[in-house]
Every structure is written in C-alpha cells, then in structure tokens.
Design brief:
The structure holds two protein chains of two kinds.
Chain A: E1 3-7, H1 10-13, H2 17-26, E2 30-34, E3 46-50, E4 53-57, H3 65-70, E5 77-79, H4 85-88, H5 110-118, H6 120-130, H7 142-151, E6 158-162, H8 172-179, H9 181-195, E7 199-204, H10 209-224, E8 232-237, H11 247-254, E9 278-282, H12 283-295, H13 297-301, E10 304-305, E11 308-309, E12 311-318, E13 324-329, H14 334-341, E14 351-356, E15 363-364, H15 375-380, E16 389-394, H16 399-413, H17 419-436, H18 441-458, H19 462-466, H20 468-477
Parallel strand pairs in A: 1-2, 6-7, 6-9, 7-8, 12-16
Antiparallel strand pairs in A: 1-3, 3-4, 4-5, 10-11, 12-13, 14-15, 14-16
Helix pairs in contact in A: 5-9, 5-12, 6-7, 6-9, 8-9, 8-10, 9-12, 16-17, 16-20, 17-18, 18-20
Chain B: H1 11-20, H2 28-39, H3 46-54, H4 58-67, E1 79-84, H5 87-91, H6 94-105, E2 118-123, E3 135-137, E4 140-142, H7 147-154
Parallel strand pairs in B: 1-2
Antiparallel strand pairs in B: 1-3, 3-4
Classes of the chains: A alpha/beta, B alpha+beta.
Bound molecules: flavin mononucleotide and FE2/S2 (inorganic) cluster.
C-alpha cells in the first residue's frame, strides 16, 4: 500500500487538508498525518513515499488524489521537498522533524540522555556557551535564567513554558506543538533536570484548539510511557488575553487570577509561580535545548551573527507570495527575507511596509531593508525581532490606520494596572482619529508623540512600553499618510 | 447579546466540574473553561457558587471572569465565527471580508443573529497568519477566506 503523508497542522486544515487526506484514503492509500513543513503557500502539501524517497505535491485538492497516486508527471509535482530551494536553503535545527514525522510517535530523547550524562551544572554551562537567548521576545540569555533558578533556594521549583503565542504574524510555537510536541517536552525535561524542578506547566491559548489537543495527547503518552521519570507536565489553556503572554501576568493567570502584570523584582526565577523559583521560557527557547545538548554548544554558537547566535524560525505572513516558516541562522537582511524568501507581495503590488515582532513591533519601510536579522541591529533602528513574525503590507496600506490600530489594541488588551497603558492608549486612539480627519494635524501629532513618551516610560510592562514602536515608526517612516485629511476611511473599531 | 437558548444553571453539574478539578493548583481558570463548555457561558449563578466552593471572594471570581475575553454571560448562537482582526489578516483584506459578513448578517462585532443562528466575534490572531485572512468556525480553522468560502462554511445561515 502506498504511504502518503498529509499534514494536520491547523494552517493545512484551514485550506482543506482533511478532505485531501480522506480522498487519498478512499483511493486505498495508507495516510500518515504529520505536522507542516512550513511551506504554507503550498498547503495542503502532500508527500508520497516512493523507492527514491518522498515526492511532494502542492497545493493539492481532493480531486488530485487519483492522478497523483497513478504516478507519472503531475502539474503539482514539486519533487523531493528536501531539495526544494525554499527548504534546502534553511538550517532546520528546531524544526528538523516537523512535517516529517508522525507527531505522536515518541522519538528518542538524545539531548536529555546527554544532559543526564553530564549533570545539571554542565547543562547550564552548555546552554550558556551556546549563546541561546529567549525566543519569546526579550532575548534574555537562557543559561543565565536557568542558573538563577538553580541557585535559588527552594524544595519545589517550576518550569513554565510560555506557549501563549499572541503576536500577530507568529505561528512557530503552534506549528511545533502540532508537528513535534515531544521536542518541547524533551526541552522542558532538560530545563527541569538543570534547575531541579519537579513540575512543569505549558500555558497555551484557547485560539489553538488543535495544538492543545496534540500537546495533551503527547503529554499523556510521555507520562504513560514513563518517559519523564518523576517530572510532571500539565497543559493549561488561557482564555483570550494577549497580556497573559507577559510572564508575570501568565503566572497570575496560572494561579487563577486576572492576568495582571506583577512588578519586578522579585524575578520569577526567585519567586515565581505560587511563590516558588520558576523558569518561564518560550516554546522555541526550550525546544532549542535538545539540539544544543546533543550537538554541543560550539556547533550552535557557530551559527548566527553578533550576539544573536544559532537559528531563528522566521515566520513570514500577511501579504507575501510565499508565507511560511523559515528557520535560518540570524543575519539575513530584512530585504532578503521579504523578497528572496517571501517572493514579494501576494497581490503583486509593491511592498510598502513590514511589521516585525508582532503588534508591539515597528513598521519598517523598504529603505531599511538592509537591516540584518539580529536583536541589536533591529534595536538600533528602533525595532524588535520579538518572536520572529514578519508581516508584509503592499502599497494599499494606510499607515495612519495601522498606527491607530496599535493604540486601539493596547487599550483593548491592557491589564488595567497602569494608567498610561489603560487610558493613554484610549486617548491616543481619539487623537489619531483627529489626525486622520485632518484636524490640527501638527498639534495632534505632537500630542501622539507626547503620549508615546508617557507610555514608554510610565508602563509596567512592554504592552504599554512598546506600543510606541508601531505608532512612532509609522509616523516617522510614512509621514505622508499623516499629512492630509483621509477620506472614505473607516475607523477600525 | 441575544440568547434564545439560555443554558439552565445546574449546581450538580457545576459541583461535578469543581470536584473533577480538585487536584489542581490554581484551578479557577480550568474550572471556568469547563463551566463555559458545559453551559455555553458562565452563568451569573456560577460566581457565588464558585466563590464558595473554592474559598474565594465573589469579587475574585467575578474579577477573573470579566478579565478574560473568552468568557461570555450568555450562550453564543448555534454557529460561532471567530474572525481574526489582527495585522497579518488586515494585510490580506480581512477587515473588508469581516465588514461584508457583518453587513450580510446585519450584526455588529460580538452580536448574534435574531434567530440565534450565528454569532460573530473578533479574535486577535489564530496563528493562521500564513493563510490569512483566517477564522475559526465552530472551532474548525478556515483560511484564505473570501466571501464564497465563508458562505460555504456557514451553509444557509
Ligand atoms: C504583552 C506581552 C506579551 C508577551 N507575549 C509572549 C508570548 O506570547 N510568548 C512568549 O514566549 N513571550 C511573550 N512575552 C515575553 C515574556 O514576558 C517573557 O519575556 C518570555 O516568556 C521569556 O521567555 P524567553 O526568555 O524564553 O523568551 C510577552 C511580553 C509582553 C510584554
Ligand atoms: S493575524 Fe490573523 S491569524 Fe494571525
């Protein structure tokens, strides 16, 4: 019987992968459901097992199943997907198995085995020397956090995986949980071993029902098969609150309260969940650990640029011809990402703006496309890499509307604890409306700038603190959109 | 929000849910999610009930319920459309798509049609940004949305 691999990643399901899987099964094929390879514009992307390797086709509809199985030339044929330039050009460390394997068959835990051989201190030293920095947004050195938690006094410690992936334009955490959940489980087990933690939580989001189902099943298997020893991991699902991705709000939410940000110090590594020493790390930070343990710190640190070491799964989305997940060492330029990898816009119109790093990230104009993908290089241009989202807009975008949306979103998602974030954002929306109506534009722009200063310096967390990035970058790089009265423009809300 | 099918509050069901979560640390959120799954919303009566059962103040329970966007005080329509309004979907014309659907159903965001058939809610990113614009329709992902695909997913609604 021919084996056929069909993704069950949510993005593939969103464009009909289930119907495609049924069509192949009806033709008598043995269908294996996998994660996604990340070439999302080609989804549903189907691979057929042949003596010469896997042959890929995409985007496939149910009507194509019979002809594809019959063999011979097919117009949707892509050949061996591993040699397909978009995939062959990547350095897949974290996403090596995603889209290839059945996500619910436990692989070996080579990284965890190695960790147990060398002991906790050497694990932390290895992570330190790899240069791995937090992949959730702030880029804090992972090894330093682990060391702090290891040295913190306490008989009970926690590992909390931040899977509350709320940034627009990002989906790497979701893809990994759906396509290779055991890699995350292994990463959490390594962290637990390093700091001496007995319990772990994965905090995911309600917008990810499929990822949650796969993750829950993988945890059941891992615990049932005794793969984690005495370490226990529990999956928790949020209830629709962007700010719960902020680590202290996340801990409040896990404890059963409103997701309000806590003042720091104390650091979670000293006093976190239920007052115990706690590591909070992003999915991708934890999932990088197994490779680093298995292949060594030097191999990881050899990749990348400046102080940004290793690989980053870049997520290309929005108005882009080839959207998807592209894992590469840091250092590509933004222009290479948007044009060479992304293929420009989906609409075929000129690229006008690119928002990097989610709703709190800056809008970059093509004039800044020489910026290398690197934490410091982005910061130097008043931007951020964040969780790796790159959202492309064509020349039909109204940047004043985007600036207004950033302020509106801040107000909508504010946890309410600090006034600038809660009220300043609402005031900002009103002022933006006046600007868009062409009323006293210069004075109102000055007011927005003032408000942004207040947000930046008066907010407890980066929700209010970083909202000025999209707002001010839109004003600075696209002043023409803020100059004249806008007609026929609808407010977003 | 209209609610044609108000779920009847049933303390026995609620008690069973609380008991099933007895072993958890910080159980309030999982319990609220289970309550909403059972009743279609978090009924008002759940607040004093949970406060008592979990040894919390009513203000603490109410504070949590009102904080999270997911919790509703009346059940949604028979079909629930959660349309993404975040940036990657905006870049692919999501707002125009949404405006079209809302106009066709004569709804504002968060409302349910008078016959209780459909509720349309905003959501900010479903992680389907590479198949934007995107939605979850009764929990099933739908991408590369256009008017035709939306109409097909909703059937006659
Ligand atoms: C408003 C806001 C939302 C955030 N959302 C996320 C998120 O969804 N996922 C994440 O890993 N980090 C998020 N962060 C960053 C976390 O606070 C924290 O830095 C991160 O979880 C630490 O893990 P890392 O060092 O592995 O990146 C957010 C921060 C803010 C201020
Ligand atoms: S922005 Fe719409 S799904 Fe991510």
């Amino acid at each position: 019987m021919t084996r056929v691999f069909v993704p069950r990643d949510a993005a593939a399901l969103a464009v009909g992968a289930d119907a495609v899987a049924r069509a192949f099964a009806a033709q008598g094929a043995e269908v294996v459901r996998t994660g996604s390879r990340g070439l999302v514009w080609l989804e549903p992307l189907v691979e057929i097992e042949t003596p010469a390797g896997r042959a890929a086709y995409g985007p496939v509809t149910p009507a194509d199943a019979a002809a594809i199985l019959a063999g011979g030339h097919h117009p949707l044929a892509l050949g061996d997907i591993e040699r397909y330039p978009w995939l062959a050009g990547q350095t897949r460390l974290t996403f090596a198995r995603c889209g290839v394997v059945d996500p619910l068959v436990p692989p070996g835990f080579a990284g965890l085995d190695r960790a147990r051989e060398i002991g906790p201190d050497a694990v932390i030293e290895t992570i330190n020397r790899s240069g791995l920095r937090g992949r959730g947004g702030a880029g804090f050195p992972v090894g330093v956090k682990w060391k702090t938690a290891r040295e913190a006094a306490g008989d009970l410690k926690y590992i909390v995986c931040n899977a509350d992936e709320g940034d627009s334009g990002t989906f790497a955490d979701r893809m990994l949980m759906e396509g290779d959940p055991f890699l995350l489980i292994e990463g959490m087990a390594i962290a637990a071993f390093a700091v001496g933690a007995a319990r772990g939580f994965i905090y995911s989001r309600s917008e990810y029902p499929h990822a949650n189902a796969t993750m829950a099943r993988a945890l059941e298997i891992a615990h049932g098969d005794g793969l984690l020893g005495s370490f226990n991991i529990e999956l928790r699902v949020g209830a629709g609150a962007y700010v719960c991705g902020e680590e202290t709000a996340l801990l409040e939410s896990l404890e059963g309260r409103r997701g309000q940000v806590r003042a720091k110090p104390p650091l979670p590594a000293h006093r976190g969940l239920f007052g115990r020493p706690t590591i909070v790390n992003n999915v991708l930070s934890l999932a990088a650990a197994p490779w680093i343990l298995q292949h060594g710190a030097a191999a990881y640190a050899a990749l990348g640029t400046g102080r940004s070491r290793g690989t980053k799964p870049i997520q290309l989305a929005g108005n882009v011809a080839r959207p998807g997940l592209y894992e590469a060492p840091f250092g590509l330029t933004l222009g290479q990402i948007v044009h060479d990898i992304g293929g420009g816009t989906a609409t075929g119109r000129p690229v006008r703006a690119v928002q990097c790093g989610g709703p709190l990230g800056a809008y970059f104009p093509p004039a800044l496309f020489d910026t290398p993908y690197d934490y410091e290089a982005f910061a130097a241009r008043d931007g951020l890499i964040g969780h790796g989202g790159v959202v492309v807009f064509d020349d039909s975008v109204d940047m004043a509307a985007q600036a207004r949306f950033a302020l509106e979103f801040c107000g909508l998602e504010s946890c309410g604890k600090c006034t600038p974030c809660r009220l300043g954002s609402k005031r900002g929306v009103e002022v933006m409306d006046r600007i868009r109506a062409g009323r006293e534009v210069a004075a109102n722009l000055a007011l927005v700038e003032d408000l942004c200063e207040t947000l930046k310096f008066g907010s407890l967390c980066a929700l209010g603190g970083f909202t000025p990035y999209p707002v001010m970058s839109a004003i600075r790089h696209f002043p023409e959109d803020f100059a004249a009265p806008v007609t026929a423009a609808e407010p977003v809300g | 929000m209209t609610s044609l099918h108000p779920a009847d509050w049933n303390p026995d069901t609620a008690r069973a849910i609380v008991d099933a979560h007895a072993g958890l640390d910080g159980p309030l959120l999982p319990i609220l999610r289970a309550i909403q799954a059972a009743f279609g919303c978090v009924p008002k009566a759940a607040i004093p009930f949970l406060a008592q059962a979990l040894n919390l103040t009513r203000a603490e329970v109410h504070g949590a319920v009102s904080f999270y966007h997911d919790f509703r005080d009346a059940p949604a329509g028979r079909r629930l459309v959660r349309l993404c309004r975040a940036e990657a979907c905006q870049a692919m014309g999501g707002e125009a798509r949404a405006a079209g659907l809302l106009a066709r159903l004569r709804l504002a965001w968060g409302e349910t049609t008078a016959d209780g058939a459909v509720t349309v809610e905003p959501v900010y990113c479903l992680g389907l940004c590479a198949v934007a614009p995107a939605a979850l329709v009764d929990g099933e992902p739908l991408g590369r949305l256009d008017a035709r695909r939306l109409a097909a997913a909703l059937g006659a609604a």
